[in-house]
UniProtKB/TrEMBL annotation:
The lineage of its organism: Bacteria, Pseudomonadati, Planctomycetota, Planctomycetia, Planctomycetia incertae sedis. This is DUF2190 domain-containing protein. It holds the Pfam family XM1_gp53_minor_capsid.
Length: 142
């Protein structure tokens, strides 16, 4: 059995034209091929992952290729990470699907099934009742 003790997610390194903090929801940069930027609109289908490392949970397994695919920011593609979240679409409860929020770099509860298709970042594993804060999420891009 192989045990990863560093964290609880699988990440790849990506470059960005922006400084990205851990917990930030990121989307595909439409201008710079292969790079990511902080999300800035609700239900964005370009959602790509969450910058790993928020709330003291470091990346678990880092995939990449030295000199080719080794960007600066570790982005969680799978596993458990903490994400910046907003209650702009209502309080978040465990089990809620999360999508990109209008608040830059944040997730929110996905309630519009038609818009959520292709824009889901994962499933909430903790609650958020306040305006904004961190939510534990099981990353599962859909």
């Amino acid at each position: 059995m192989l045990r990863i003790l560093g964290g609880a997610d699988i990440v790849e390194g990506f470059d960005s034209t922006e400084a990205l903090e851990p917990g930030t929801v990121v989307v595909i940069d439409a201008i710079n091929a292969g790079e990511l930027i902080a999300s800035s609109e609700a239900y964005d289908r370009k959602v790509a992952g969450i910058v790993s490392g928020a709330n003291g949970v470091n990346p678990g397994l880092h995939l990449g290729q030295d000199g080719v695919l080794d960007g600066e920011f570790p982005v969680a593609m799978s596993g458990r990470v903490w994400v910046k979240a907003s209650t702009e679409n209502g309080a978040i409860a465990p089990g809620d699907l999360l999508t990109t929020a209008a608040l830059a770099g944040h997730a929110m509860r996905a309630t519009d099934d038609a818009r959520a298709n292709g824009a889901v970042i994962g499933k909430a594993m903790s609650a958020l009742d306040a305006d904004a804060g961190l939510v534990l999420v099981l990353v599962n891009l859909q």
